[in-house]
Amino acid sequence: MSEHIVQPRIYIMIFLALMLGTGLTVLAAFYDFPGPLNAVVALTIACLKATLVVLYFMHVRYSGRLIWLVIIAAIFWLAIMFAITFSDYWTRNWLPIS
Amino acid sequence: MPEGLAATHEHASHPALRHHLENMEQQREAGTLGMWVFLVTEIMFFGGMFLAYTLFRYEYPAAFVSASNHLDIKLGALTTGVLIVSSFTMAMAVYSTQIGRQKATIICLILTMILGATFLGVKAIEYHDKYNDQLIPGQLIPWRPFNPEVAKPGDTDPHKLHLIEGATTQNVQLFYWIYFAMTGMHALHMIIGLGIMTVILIMAWRGKFSPEYHAPVEISGLYWHFVDIIWIFLFPLLYLLGRHLEHGG
Q1: Which of A7, B70, B121, B187 lies in the 20 to 30 Å Cα band around B85?
Q2: B44-245 CATH fold
Q3: What is the DSSP letter of B93?
Q4: Which of B33, B80, B244 has its CB closest to that of A38?
Q5: Which is nearest to B145 in space by CA: B185, B175, B173, B121?
């Protein structure tokens, strides 16, 4: 597969989007959303920013399937680590200790 | 091998092509894949620390808010911006080598390094603030152990520790162990990144790169962007999320 050269125009747009995301996440920190939404908002913005960096700055959008597979595997294994650990912590006090 | 075949092979290959790879394209893709596999191990390495952060935040929310509120949001936002600009200049360095502009590549690499060094400089200022306020956990600094001054109600001195209800100094110390482990490992990655960029800069200076051969710039760029991504998550988790629970949100 031949190499795709990402044009500076796209880099500038992604850069501006990342700066906007940073501004938004700081603004959101001074505004209270109800309940656990604060963390959800902050993490959603962070995930969106990270996705933009991965897809465009790191050229994954234009990379082969093998690279996609490696990244999806990483996210999957990370999810396993979090899910199994939390399945323990969240359920610890479900049953009374006799 | 017949002589003629050997001769054509020699003629077609780029001096930077390793003998075990077919062509430059395959070499570049193999290198990129290798870097991504390394980055997966890095994701799992930092992932473990993010997991520790999440667990302790879940267990001691009040202490995490109190400790997080002691961090300076302005400096945190500044370093985030600096890193994003450095990622942009890094991307432009890769673009410049792809189209064969040596001078632009060198300028972009130097800018990236200056921004990276700026990040570390601001981080050093923040660490020094924590040193002054005796917030460096445990006995990491033997002559200045963890011993922050706790503010009394009504006292607004930002150098003192403002504990909200349910927070203990001991659990604030836990936050600072995680804070220094995560930002410290991140800073170490930045220092390694600056070392890599120095090598790439020297190679670019000597005219090693061309549109056919620019894989080292691109692969080092992947590492640089990855370190940026880690900070994109660290900034809201360490600096911002604490803002809310302060007033019971």
Answers
A1: B70
A2: Four Helix Bundle (Hemerythrin (Met), subunit A) (1.20.120)
A3: H
A4: B244
A5: B173
Contact B220, B94 (CB under 8 A): no
CB-count burial class (<10 Å; 0-12, 13-18, 19+) for B24: buried
SS3 at position B161:
strand
CA dihedral (B92, B189, B113, B73) in degrees, to 10, reads 90
Contact present, B45 and A81 (Cβ < 8 Å):
no
Q: Which residue has the tokens 């209800």?
A: B165
CB < 8 Å from B in window 30-59 of A: 30, 32-34, 38-39, 42-43, 45-46, 49-50, 53-54, 56-59
ipTM: 0.92
pLDDT tens for each residue of B54-74: 999 989 989 999 999 899 999
Domain ranges of chain A: 8-91
- With contact defined as beta carbons under 8 Å apart, do B140 and B180 qualify? yes
The DSSP bridge partners found for residue B161 are B150
Burial, A86: exposed, middle or buried (Cβ in 10 Å; 0-12, 13-18, 19+)?
middle
Count, residues in chain B: 249
Q: Structural domain boundaries of chain B? A: 44-245
pLDDT at A12: 97
Task: Give CA–CA dist B84/A52, Å, rounded.
Answer: 12
DSSP assigned state of B232? H
pLDDT at B247 over 50: no
pLDDT in tens, B173-205: 999 999 999 999 999 999 999 999 999 999 999
- How far is the C-alpha of A60 from the C-alpha of A72, rounded, in Å? 12
